[in-house]
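Input/output pair, single chain:
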Amino acid sequence: MDESKVREIIRQELGLFIRSDRFTFQKDIQMLDGRNIQLATGTGTKFGTGIDQKIGYYNATPIAQRSGSAQVAVSGTADSTYSANEVTLINDIVVLLNELRAWAVAQGFIKGSA
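Output:
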C-alpha cells in the first residue's frame, strides 16, 4: 500500500470526526480519572450555544434553560410589622437570594425572567 492510499484511508476514517471548524463525536466521550478539561482564559467557553439546547449534570435528565416570571429578582423587604432582628434576617435572605439568582443567570442555568 503506497503513501497516497494510506492518506486516503485516513481522510475517509477521520472525515466524520474532523470538520473545518469543529470536531464531531458520534459516540460518548469518556475521560479517565484525574483528567481535566483545560480552557483558555481569554474570551471564554460555552457549553450550549442556544437556550433550547439541553444539558444535564450529575446524571440528571438534560433540560433546556429554565425561564419564567418566578425568576425575577426579589424586590420587597421586610417592614416594621416585624422585629428589628426579623427585618435584618429577612432582608439578608433577600440579598442572598438575589445574589444566588444573579449567579444562576450569569452562568446561564436560568434565564432570570419570563
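The two ends are 62 Å apart (CA to CA). Residues 84-107 form the longest helix (24 residues).
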